[in-house]
Amino acid sequence: MAGTLAACGSSDGGQGSGDSKTVTLVSHNSWAASKGVIAAFEKQSGYKVNVLEDGDAGQAVNKAILTKDNPQGDVFFGVDNTLLSRALDNGLFQPYEAKGSDRIAPEYRADQDKHRVTPVDTGDICVNYDKKYFADHKLDPPRSFDDLVKPQYKNLLVTENASTSSPGLGFLLGTAAKYGDGGWEGYWKKLKANGVKVVDGWEQAYNEEFSGSASGKKAKGDRPLVVSYASSPPVEVVYTDPKPTTAPTGVAQGTCFRQVEYAGLLSNAKNTKGGKAFLDFLISERFQEDMPLNMYVYPVREGAQVPPEFVKYGPQVKDPETMDPAKIADRRDQWVKSWTSLVLK
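Request: output the structure for the sequence above.
Response:
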């Protein structure tokens, strides 16, 4: 989710899924796993893992749908609850109930009657703030959606395009969940009047525009508020040397929307046996406990341990906005269309 690390395993594209000894994973650019964990799967299963990264989540899902009759791989990882219905309605996946599915926390399960997708991770899309900026300006950081439209936060927020970016869409859905059908558009009119800046994707927003991230500082980003993840602050600690005692960024807990990411066996996959083995692996305890410090997300497997620095700097949000996937399916495209004409024009 957090978009920080490169893929593991082969990604040369030279070995296709037709090779029964290779299982090909298609994912967004945020896929990451420890080499040792992938190597353990390869040794135990006998399959070589080939990873194809296909842009951000929205882009990757759309491309997978367009190529579903002749898929690029066997398993797709990274479709989240904001886009799940689009993938299912377009027949992207074939049914498979992964071994260990009974260990997945019930609140993350979806498509239980057909088992076309397997939940893999969860996280919260939230506004992050630059602690130093707010301390220097003797200003309290925003805590809620309501705060973001107040005059003291004018021209401070950067978010992503809801039609091209998964966190951008999640933030839009968070406002729709908070203010309802009759209120979210009025909220965005206020946000626009308060100087919100919209960019195409998370990488640009977080690493170029946001003043609180290490990359944003180098790029001289001037926005101290950004739509990112509740798990972004640990990134700023783990990758800084020497490590700071506290994270330089914080999370506005009242601006969060719960995201769940899924994986599935692609329809027309050439190596279905290998694909099923890989899906079993994604919800194994070893992979689930490896995820937090690689993809900066929380495991969905009950009992999976989370690293202490992740708990300390990126605690899971207690009361995020949520939305029934059926409602997302029913309203998403119209909401995005209305949002685009309201905010971008």
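The radius of gyration is 20 Å.
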